[in-house]
Design brief:
403 residues, single chain, 11 strands
Length: 403
Amino acid sequence: METHQHADPLSGAVLDGRYRVDSLIATGGMSGVYRGLDLRLDRPVALKIMDSRYAGDEHFLTRFQREARAVARLKDPGLVAVYDQGAGTPAGHPPFLVMELIEGGTLRELLRERGPMPPHAVAAVLRPVLGGLAVAHRAGLVHRDIKPENILISDDGEVKIADFGLVRAVAEAKITSTSVILGTAAYLSPEQVSTGDTDSRGDVYSVGVLVFELLTGTTPFTGDTTLAVAYQRMDHDVPPPSSVINGVPRQFDDLVHCATARDPAERFADAAEMRDQLETVVRELALPPFRVPAPRNSALHNSAIEPTGPHDATDDLDKPTDGAGVGRRTRVFTRDELPADFDDDDEDRPLTGRFAGIELTEFYWARQRAKRVLFFWVVAVITLAGSAAAGAWALGTNLSTLL
């Protein structure tokens, strides 16, 4: 490792003689994410650098390398590409991953800015998430840590999942890492809480909790401690989103209900099955297509224009939270609670009446227009079928006369 004098001890370092560490994007209990540059290919990259305490743990390093190789083989638009990995050394640099740099921000940051999403926007987020998970599940891999912080949105509207394999590697390390539990308590499946084991249905449960949060702006369980939040799901079902916020279609209630069943056997078997059901919901509701916007004020955007130190413009990737997301939850306003002089251009206010700068009523009328067009075609087909049937009947009735 080559180092230079910077406020952050890693900023300016060169890992494996190839990857230059630039500005810090985000940090958490077990890792930090940096902008970086592949000096050999002159390519911007994201560097996820693990905490130095993992450098001397052979169990972690073995699992870390194995998981990195497995994830690097996955190819899907909904997955952040893994380019390379470094094992680190006990006396040298820590282990790291070299990943695709997604210029944009996280789904958590978008929720902070915009608040709860309408159904068509939720569907636009879920399609690539479930698509990427389906590819991983088909390959026998499980993410284990689906949450808004691990879903990235690019400035081009791409939605991608990050951090495959890290939770399993850390969990099997000899070092106890409470941040793995604390940071994900709101999204853990019951079997993860009770035994620590999970499969593709555990990811499905986490996606179900994610859907609930996208629709309502909050997670379903609360408690005084993170462990209390985790154990809530052992005895309680996730409530339907429509019980928290008005206007959620029944189909999304059913989707969440199936995904978050306490018995894994009653859930969707994997992400592919849940994706198929999502497509059915989209068709039934005639949801319009939608391009998911990247958050405007993201840690990654800020890292590109501001010098960073150890505590500058960071987003706690593994920050402990209660089930309601205290410290990072978006307040949900009803229409009656909005002030009369509400300014749509004020980015500091929750925009519950708009999403991505577009009035939600526009999406409602778009769906109504789609329903009217569908109704017109159904009537036209029935009319044509009826005319054809009447003609055939008349012809059959008078066939003997004609002959």
